[in-house]
UniProtKB/TrEMBL annotation, chains A, B:
Pfam families noted in UniProt: AP_endonuc_2
Gene3D superfamilies hit by this protein: Divalent-metal-dependent TIM barrel enzymes (3.20.20.150)
Native source organism of the sequence: Isoptericola hypogeus
Signal peptide interval: none
Keyword Isomerase attached: yes
Protein name: Sugar phosphate isomerase/epimerase
Iron-sulfur as UniProt keyword: no
Alphabetic keyword roster: Carbohydrate metabolism, Isomerase
Residues of the Xylose isomerase-like TIM barrel domain: 38-288
Gene Ontology molecular functions: isomerase activity
Length: 308, 308
């Protein structure tokens, strides 16, 4: 219910700042249980949490939804479907099966926003590692891999529509184009979404992944105009990169991203949904979840909220 | 003379494969002297070398040019001008001064292609490191930094034209947008070049930096149509990234990039200039320069030449 759900009145922290649109993606407190993550978000005065599928699978969708709602929070999104680039018949069938389950889990846990990370090249051995020794030229064919993503979205869209779930395409930073996601820009995500109803295939703006894009302002405006802006995720681009670049994200304000400008573009595009903070970083993960959630609220209040 | 220079007849290696368009960028053999790098390229049967300014400064332009021509090679390009994003008066003046010297050096050493890496955000402390502690929101303003790059190109273009040198804009991978280059796509480089004569401001396609771009085919075709395709540099995207991501490039064929497809796009755009291999990697730098140059030629012959 990111873009259209009810707002919790009075979800404010001590200073009276309205944190009702501030959501804690539970990956930011990776080592917390669902109950601990929800407690941390509620204690910090946040309005929502973003969940991951393993939490829904662990508790069952109904119980996971109740853990969240009992704390007075909403589910802003579910991460994640995707991994659609296989070019063999068994791989395609497995991807479709898994994504149908993800769609059911999103519906069951009470969010209509299911974030998709679409997967890397078939040449990949495993994420973050080099190509398979037997990878041929076709396994490096990025154009073909992107075309298969389009085909798989077409396969899944009717099932998502039936379940009231939106496939939310996430562009990942080009650093991950080989091994995690062949969608590399917001504009490309919008092109892939274009053939489908805006209520069935949307896009998410994640600052970490798209902040550098010369076309970002135009693509955010287009996403708003087309009714596809299904989420806004924030975290910062910090340097030096961590040894595992996937886990190299910083709290909002600690890095290079111009949050006032990007947040203004998102607001001007008409987005009135939740703002999820999603940070992958070992030091953040080693911090007490309540401290992390409080920092998330403070940074949102300082760098994002005034520009929404 | 990348795009228009004479071809050396008979620059072939033992097997008869024509390596006359294969150029060794001397950064690939970082620890070699200019004489050693030239010897390695000539011994491997390559047709050209790409130079760096420190080599020209060390020997003087005339002597550096003679070291190259005495070995029967051409200079395919000079790296590099740029670093144009300063927003203080002294920083702007220093950048203009330095780039005028670079333009003179390019003319002196006999290439008209001067590669520009345009610099990162003013918030940067030093490349690869976090923002300055005193960096304010304006120092993270990417839109403004890009506008300053456009202004500085305008300042330098007449001087380049007078010297018969082309400012060759290089889009760097978005991993470097914060700290090294706010030009992140080939399309953006072409937009920045658009106000100027194609003989004065051009672009280079470096596979490492642009391979992931969904608009790559269209942007390469546009560069050809506009007469701005001033260079083609190749090296591979390998994983895992090195601790210093700048030095994380692989020999052609060792990573994820689809060289047949990108090389075909470059050829179809009408490019008939040199193909520089430019690799920053500690292991490559630790290899004997003659071995590295031979590998460069072999990989070019296998993965690039058949598609040109």
């Amino acid at each position: 219910m990111t873009a259209s759900g009810d707002r919790l009145a009075g979800a404010t922290h001590g200073s009276g700042t309205d944190l009702s649109r501030c959501s804690l993606n539970t990956a930011t407190v990776k080592h917390a249980t669902l109950a601990q993550a929800v407690d941390a978000a509620a204690t910090a005065g946040l309005g929502a949490v973003g969940l991951w599928r393993h939490q829904v699978q662990e508790h069952g969708a109904q119980k996971a939804a109740r853990i969240v709602s009992d704390a007075g929070l909403r589910v802003s999104s579910l991460c994640r479907g995707g991994f659609l680039t296989a070019h063999d018949e068994a791989g395609v069938a497995a991807a479709l099966d898994d994504n149908r389950r993800a769609i059911e889990e999103a519906a069951g846990v009470g969010t209509r926003e299911l974030v998709f990370v679409v997967g890397g090249l078939p040449a990949m051995s495993e994420p973050g590692r080099g190509p398979r020794p037997d990878a041929g030229p076709g396994d490096r064919d990025l154009v073909a891999a992107r075309a298969r993503v389009a085909d798989r979205i077409g396969d899944l869209a009717p099932f998502a529509a039936e379940h009231g779930v939106r496939i939310v395409l996430e562009a990942l930073h080009p650093i991950f184009a080989a091994d995690r996601a062949v969608i590399s820009t917001l504009g490309q995500a919008l092109d892939l979404a274009a053939p489908f109803d805006a209520g069935v295939v949307g896009v998410v703006v994640d600052t970490y992944h798209v902040w550098w894009d010369p076309a970002l302002e135009a693509s955010i405006a287009r996403a708003g105009r087309e009714g596809r802006l299904a989420g806004y995720q924030v975290c910062d681009w910090i340097l030096p990169l961590a040894a595992e670049p996937l886990n190299s994200r910083g709290h909002v304000g600690d890095g290079y991203i111009d949050f006032p400008t990007v947040s203004r573009w998102v607001a001007e595009a008409g987005y009135d949904g939740d703002v999820e903070t999603e940070i992958f970083h070992e030091e953040v993960w080693a911090t007490d979840p309540r401290d992390t959630a409080r920092t998330v609220g403070e940074r949102y209040a300082r760098h994002v909220l005034p520009h929404l």
